[in-house]
Amino acid sequence: MRFTSYSSMSKKVILFTLQTFSTTGGIQKMTRTLGHSLYQIAQTNSWNFELWSAYDKPADLMSLYLPAKSFKGFGTNRINFVLKAISKLVRPDVVILSHINLAIIGSIIKLVNPKCKVWLTAHGIEVWRPLSFIKRRFLKSCDKVICVSNFTKQQIVDRHQVNEGNCVVLNNVIDPLMPLPTSFTKPQHLVDRYQLGNSHPIIFTLTRMASTEKYKGYEQVIRVVGELKAQYPHIKYILAGKYDPQEEIRINQLIAEHQVKNHVILTGFIDEAELVDHFLLADLFVLPSKKEGFGIVFIEALACGLPVICGNADGSIDAIRNGELGKAINADNPAELYNCITEYLASPVTAATRKQLQEQCVQHFNETGYINKLQLLLAS
What we know:
Elements (H helix, E strand, L loop, with lengths): L11 E6 L8 H20 L2 E6 L17 E3 L4 H8 L8 E4 L5 H10 L4 E6 L2 H4 L4 H9 L2 E4 L2 H11 L6 E3 L18 H6 L8 E5 L11 H11 L7 E5 L4 H13 L6 E5 L6 H7 L2 E4 L8 H8 L4 E4 L4 H4 L7 E3 L4 H13 L4 H14 L2 H13 L1
Parallel strand pairs: 1-2, 1-4, 2-3, 4-5, 5-6, 6-7, 8-9, 8-11, 9-10, 11-12, 12-13
Helix pairs in contact: 1-15, 3-5, 8-13
């Protein structure tokens, strides 16, 4: 890894998080990469960097991201997390908060240490909704709001009247520890597990499925698969991710309604170790969501050479670089989704095409570029 050092001045930087290593989600993945990148910057510049997590325990640390000396997990004593974070004895130069729910801590830090620069990372729906007085006030007092997409930035400016000059877009990047495939054959163990054949076109979705969230769009994919099965009788739709009991009932009702019981495979939670293999298994990744802050899963799919269809009304646009790397459709228009999927299935992706797509994705969403942008922000 090669990147540029921009400052010789010593700094102490602390990244405060809610949860980073003990669960897996988009915000957690982004925070791991941010922590890893900040640690690399600190090493290069002889700075002091620490990641503090309110909910992780010390044993939850994934040491490939940063060493134990740079991590404090307060999972067994969250009150201590708050007390130490706002202590006058802890005097960092820059504090970065991973979530708006840490606003009260950021506000107090700014009060007891006015010279400290306080940043917030803004992801998606957590800042697109109405906020409490404390959170709104904190947003406006931040030295920088790091937005993961242009859509999130615009939402913050429009909804909360935050100074646009304080908002910086820093797109998420591929996890530096994600093993990128060098060949693009379908993993036989997954072909066997799901009882697939070579003639099966495979559509893949990976997302959290919650009865309280009706914006991911997989119900539209189920509907479209019901229409596609006449033309593609062996089509399979692998719908992966955690789901709660209520949502499982709703999904199975949709499967029955559209008569796709033999075409939809519900996998449940997929372990990180099998994620790349599932991207390699598929011919197309589809997540026509309407409320993605960015959508790390899109660049993970693209980094495995898998074509992507996303929604056109949220931060997903940044992940496909406004259409350069994938297709964006109106998530409320099943006909548009149907046409887009059939266009891909009519011209199955080749290994050479997948390799090219991977290279394009890695060129734009790599950690080295991310680190250089972070260093410029820290030096300003």
